[in-house]
Automatic annotation (TrEMBL):
<feature type="domain" description="Carbohydrate kinase PfkB">
    <location>
        <begin position="13"/>
        <end position="294"/>
    </location>
</feature>
<dbReference type="GO" id="GO:0008662">
    <property type="term" value="F:1-phosphofructokinase activity"/>
</dbReference>
<comment type="function">
    <text>Catalyzes the ATP-dependent phosphorylation of fructose-l-phosphate to fructose-l,6-bisphosphate.</text>
</comment>
<dbReference type="InterPro" id="IPR029056">
    <property type="entry name" value="Ribokinase-like"/>
</dbReference>
<dbReference type="InterPro" id="IPR017583">
    <property type="entry name" value="Tagatose/fructose_Pkinase"/>
</dbReference>
<comment type="similarity">
    <text>Belongs to the carbohydrate kinase PfkB family. LacC subfamily.</text>
</comment>
<comment type="similarity">
    <text>Belongs to the carbohydrate kinase pfkB family.</text>
</comment>
<dbReference type="InterPro" id="IPR022463">
    <property type="entry name" value="1-PFruKinase"/>
</dbReference>
<comment type="pathway">
    <text>Carbohydrate metabolism; D-tagatose 6-phosphate degradation; D-glyceraldehyde 3-phosphate and glycerone phosphate from D-tagatose 6-phosphate: step 1/2.</text>
</comment>
<keyword id="KW-0547">Nucleotide-binding</keyword>
<protein>
    <recommendedName>
        <fullName>Tagatose-6-phosphate kinase</fullName>
        <ecNumber>2.7.1.144</ecNumber>
    </recommendedName>
</protein>
<keyword id="KW-0067">ATP-binding</keyword>
<dbReference type="InterPro" id="IPR011611">
    <property type="entry name" value="PfkB_dom"/>
</dbReference>
<keyword id="KW-0808">Transferase</keyword>
<keyword id="KW-0418">Kinase</keyword>
<dbReference type="Pfam" id="PF00294">
    <property type="entry name" value="PfkB"/>
</dbReference>
<dbReference type="InterPro" id="IPR002173">
    <property type="entry name" value="Carboh/pur_kinase_PfkB_CS"/>
</dbReference>
Length: 320
């Protein structure tokens, strides 16, 4: 059986602090501490595994503090193949004020990767493509990795007939669009940065997704948090509306959506059903505190409460 392959070039260790009454510039008391493996590619792999899909994750890890990530992935039965690089994997500090749910993030930039290690990573991805059902490229790039790396990996996957999902920001995303990824999933803020304008309504979001579609991807998904998500192809558009939930932390919600799409593509689901599964996964994670990601059972509970409607801005934005 083929597997979902997630590429995690810039993983993280997420250190979450619950701090009642957190005030910047003051002395604060920490009520609880939690450590989780993090970074987009790793989160995607963990959620895909929770949804019952065969998955492997590969990428770089700092050799000085790799144990926590490797141990956690093994415990969660996520297959992994990492290339070690000098230095430490970045530690991202998440400060949560529990009464308001307000999140303050301090994210480190991470290690530096040599050109030789980048070449070894590209060769490893190419080696694993014959056993890959869907290739997921997600997250920022550490220093030393060229902004064209996702473009090059998508080109390799296309030649091998493997669908790709891309979730990154800025120049790496812009550089990769012309390589024709199967699906991209920027969030609303990332989409606005790519287009250079605000998207204030669902109609504007769908129109913006159509503009990105013209640059190369086959499917564009724009996630807008609790307001839902748009999925746009060359011929049709849909809008997903998630159910109301008790808000937890948004950390990992977008990654959970990507995992949902990867699982759906690997199972041959239709695009509306893929959007429903992805939205349910993102919603289930958004209801959790800190950097936890959803379980398969939580996603199943949310799934029937997600509403999917065809959406056509040219007809006034009415859901049909």
């Amino acid at each position: 059986m083929k597997t979902i392959t997630a590429v995690a070039l810039n993983p993280a260790i997420d250190r979450t602090l619950l701090v009642p009454g957190f005030t910047a510039g003051a002395t604060n008391r920490v009520a609880a501490v939690r450590m989780d493996p993090g970074g987009k590619g790793i989160n995607v792999a963990r959620v895909a595994r929770a949804l019952g899909a065969p998955v492997q994750v590969l990428g770089f890890l700092g050799e000085e503090n790799a144990d926590l990530i490797l141990r956690s992935l093994t415990q969660e039965q996520v297959a992994h193949r990492f290339l070690m690089v000098p230095g430490e994997t970045r530690v991202n500090l998440k400060i949560i004020e529990p009464a308001t749910g307000q999140l303050t993030e301090l994210n480190e930039s991470g290690f530096t990767v040599s050109e030789q290690r980048v070449q070894e990573l590209v060769a490893l991805v190419e080696q694993l493509l014959p056993e890959t059902a869907v290739l997921v490229l997600a997250g920022s790039l550490p220093a030393g990795v060229p902004v064209t790396v996702y473009r090059d990996l998508i080109a390799l996957a296309r030649r091998a007939g493997v669908p790709t999902i891309l979730d990154t920001d800025g120049e790496p995303m812009r550089a990769a669009l012309a390589a024709h990824p199967t699906l991209i999933k920027p969030n609303l803020a990332e989409t606005e940065r790519l287009l250079g304008r605000r998207l204030k309504t669902p109609d504007a979001v769908v129109q913006g997704a159509r503009q990105l579609l013209a640059e190369g991807p086959e499917v564009v998904v724009v996630s807008s948090g609790a307001d839902g998500a748009a999925l746009v192809t060359g011929r049709q558009s849909w809008w997903a509306t998630p159910p109301d939930i008790r808000p937890g932390s948004t950390v990992g919600a977008g990654d959970s959506m990507v995992a949902g799409f990867a699982v759906a593509l690997s199972r041959g689901l239709s695009l509306p059903d893929a959007l429903r599964l992805a939205t349910a996964a993102g919603t289930a994670t958004a209801g959790l505190d800190g950097t936890q990601v959803c379980t398969g059972g939580a996603v199943e509970a949310v799934l029937p409460r997600v509403r999917i409607a065809e959406w056509n801005p040219a007809e006034g934005g009415e859901a049909k």
